[in-house]
Write a structure and sequence with these properties.
It comes from Desulfosporosinus nitroreducens. The chain is built from 18 helices and 19 strands. It is an alpha/beta fold. It has 4 domains: about 160 residues, 3-Layer(aba) Sandwich (Rossmann fold), CATH 3.40.50.11540; about 80 residues, Ubiquitin-like (UB roll) (Roll), CATH 3.10.20.600; about 110 residues, no CATH class; about 60 residues, Beta Barrel (OB fold (Dihydrolipoamide Acetyltransferase, E2P)), CATH 2.40.50. It starts with 9 loop residues before the first helix and ends in a 6-residue tail after the last strand.
Length: about 450
């Protein structure tokens, strides 16, 4: 890092971030240059990493505190924010110790220590825990003057300003693997290759892309790592989390109709409900079961569900998944172009007492046998081939700017944002030759003479 931040203007920061193809690494991949083009009062680094087993952000922040703080201050500069916070848990002692000296250098930065609860990393909850402010239902943090970025995103922002595009992803590979590890791989590396780095794959195991709570089942190990791949987890096929993720929505609805006792636990423990959002999973289950909508806002409140999984994995005593019902409702509502229009209500006075301790969640999910260190390797894996998706972000897919047979260098632009569209650029992640281009992806194989 050259440290020339004061010489760079707000517009130049977001332009460089756009050039580098930075997207929100902790979520759905919203293009970061768009986020940084807005004006905000506060920028928060979300370093909560509250999904059990994942250990990427805490280790990256401990290893690169200066780069992370530089990314934070650049984001503050770009958005005109007067305050910067790093939100993390006290139990990340090494990370706190590494960051402290860098945070203390500037009076407008602070470490915001959060309780060890789930879902501290849901940005709406992160903001509430660190600032006491509440994002309205259906709104975004910017509605209350806040921008939230995760650790890897801001490290990528700092690198972008140095002219370094996003070509790698660091992620934890853990669970029932031989050697849990946190590795850095070129984007486009196959998931099977990444599991090989942790000891290989097995027919006895099933695989999750992301954390145990919010991750999705992997159906194809040849799929590739993207800018948003949060972690990879292996678990025995008969593990409750795998069984639950395999259930169909029809099955879930059948169970809900048969056994929902309207106990209200799912709503009492719903983090969004606690902070004053209307979302009440027990009412949604009732409405779906009896096909009675009542208040029309009720069904549309499903759109405000964060999909944190508290209702299905922790709250419901009879194994119903309001989350999956909400996901199905969201798909229908979005297809009809319906938006949620409700207001922010009162915060539950008991909210802080209802938060779920991570250790209790770990026991409930029966993950204790796999709660192990996953040390960060400093080597960057070198695959023979990468398959880079043209859409690793929210918005329009990137448009290829190379052709089959082209020899490319790591970091070279291969996918451009379509004119006038929301999107993110895609860069080659290894040196090699373009061997295939489909509407979905560009494949690069190692080898070929440089031009
Ligand atoms: S997944 Fe369940 S607990 Fe989480 S926000 Fe949605 S309804 Fe609430
Ligand atoms: S916790 Fe389960 S049983 Fe209770 S109201 Fe919610 S879905 Fe129904």
């Amino acid at each position: 890092m050259s440290g020339k931040m004061s010489e760079i203007t707000m517009k130049e920061i977001s332009a460089k971030v756009r050039e580098a193809g930075v997207v929100g690494a902790g979520g759905a991949g919203f293009p970061t240059h768009v986020k940084l083009s807005a004006q905000a009062e506060t920028v928060i680094v979300n370093a909560a990493e509250c999904e059990p087993l994942l250990k990427t952000d805490q280790q990256l922040a401990a290893l690169y505190p200066e780069v992370l703080v530089k990314g934070l201050t650049l984001a503050m500069e770009a958005t005109g924010a007067s305050k910067g916070m790093v939100a993390l848990k006290a139990k990340y002692k090494d990370t706190v110790a590494a960051l402290e000296p860098w945070i203390k250098k500037r009076s407008n930065l602070e470490l915001a220590i959060m309780p060890d609860i789930y879902p501290a990393g849901d940005e709406v909850i992160t903001i509430w825990l660190t600032t006491g402010r509440r994002v309205p239902p259906g709104g975004i943090p910017l509605n209350i003057g806040v921008v939230v970025n995760n650790v890897q995103t801001l490290i990528n922002v700092a690198r972008a300003v140095e002219g370094i595009p996003v070509t790698t992803r660091t992620l934890t590979v853990t669970g029932a693997v031989k050697n849990p590890i946190t590795v850095t791989v070129p984007i486009g590396t196959s998931i099977r290759d990444v599991f090989q780095l942790a000891g290989g794959v097995s027919k006895e195991l099933a695989y999750i892309n992301g954390g145990p709570m919010m991750g999705t089942l992997i159906t194809d190990l040849s799929a590739s790592v993207t800018k948003t791949t949060g972690g990879l987890i292996a678990l025995p096929k008969d593990h409750m989390l795998i069984q639950r993720k395999q259930m169909t929505v029809d099955n879930i609805l059948r169970i809900a109709k048969t056994v929902c006792e309207q106990c209200n636990f799912c709503t009492e423990l719903c983090p969004r409900h606690m902070i004053g959002h209307e979302l009440s999973p027990h009412k949604l289950i009732r409405a779906v079961n009896y096909k009675s909508i009542g208040d029309p806002l009720l069904i549309t409140s499903a759109l405000t569900c964060s999909e944190c999984g508290v209702c299905e994995a922790y709250a419901c005593p009879v194994g119903i998944s309001p989350l999956r019902v909400n996901v199905a409702l969201k798909a229908e509502l979005r297809a009809q172009g319906i938006k949620y229009q409700g207001e922010l209500g009162k915060e539950d006075p008991m909210a802080k007492h209802r938060l779920i301790p991570s250790s209790r969640l770990m026991d409930r999910l029966r993950l204790r046998p796999w709660y192990k260190e996953a040390p960060l390797s400093l080597e960057v894996y070198e695959p023979d081939e990468v398959n880079l998706k043209l859409q690793q972000h929210i918005g329009a897919p990137a448009v290829p700017v190379v052709k089959v047979g082209d020899v490319v260098r790591s970091g070279q632009l291969i996918g451009e944002i379509p004119a006038g569209a929301l999107g993110a650029k895609v860069h080659a992640s290894i040196d090699g030759t373009v061997t295939q281009i489909t509407p979905q992806a560009i494949t690069i194989r190692k080898g070929g003479a440089a031009k």
